[in-house]
Amino acid sequence: MELRTAASPKDVRYYDTKRLREEFLVEKVFFEDDIKLVYSHIDRIIFGGAMPVNKELKLEAGDELRAQYFLERRELGIINIGGDGTVTADGEVYEIAARDGMYIGKGTKDIVFTSKDPKNPAKFYMCSGPAHMTYPTKRILKDSKATKEYDVEIKPENKKELGSMEDANHRTINKYILPGQVESCQLEMGMTHLEPGSVWNTMPCHTHDRRMEVYLYFDMPEDAFVTHYMGEPQETRHIIMRNEQAVISPSWSIHAGSGSRNYTFIWGMVGENQDFDDMDEVRMQDLL
After folding, report:
1. Would the annotation count 255 as a binding residue?
2. How many domains does the chain have?
3. At which positions is Zn(2+) bound (predicted)?
4. pLDDT tens for residues 243-281?
5. Which residues form the domain of 109?
6. Known binder of ligand: residue 208?
7. How does pLDDT run across 70-93, given as a tens digit for each residue?
């Protein structure tokens, strides 16, 4: 498990491009037949990817957690951005199709990932935060109908269409894990898709001192990129990001992006509260 420490905004003002990327960017999230995890000291989030191809992958605690198993004191959110796969949680097998997700509660001991087709492997993107109690494990269906007692369909009000083609930010926010749909201790996750011809996300931008965030950008060809904007509103910085790369956003930082074409991104949040609308908006004319 890779460890990332917290960073002060006073220090980040003086980072060059190399240092910015070292501190905040994760250049490769998915490795064949392996699990890649990053532990950030910022609100103790853990995020990463599992990509089973020719074998099953088991989620282990690792020495960094000083725990008997990964979810001894944690909760976990998953969204599959690859082919169809399965997640087995304490012996229960959950079929997780492309773009579907899962919430696994504190206390689940054994978690195993597999793919249905090695030629089109699943890519399970994960975010985990500390948990103080156990909430039920759920399978989260983006577009399908519920067939099991543990299924949750994303509610219409949690598929929010925003922006316009004229402003190049026509996008749909799909909220997977949040109060009123899938209960959790502090974790929230969702996926935002930009329509063809749109490139801007989260603009006008904002900060939220009570929550940090991690973005995973994907659905881009090899020659495309997203310019991710971060930093204090009057001390903005940028990081060039390629397909399936992730970036850490501290609570004091803006988090927005503009791409060379449309793309999709997953956002994961942990922190003080779970109020999705608790944010401090920044006027466009105040950015520097």
Report:
1. yes
2. 1
3. 206, 208, 213, 255
4. 999 999 999 999 999 999 999 999 999 999 888 888 889
5. 2-286
6. yes
7. 999 999 999 999 999 999 999 999
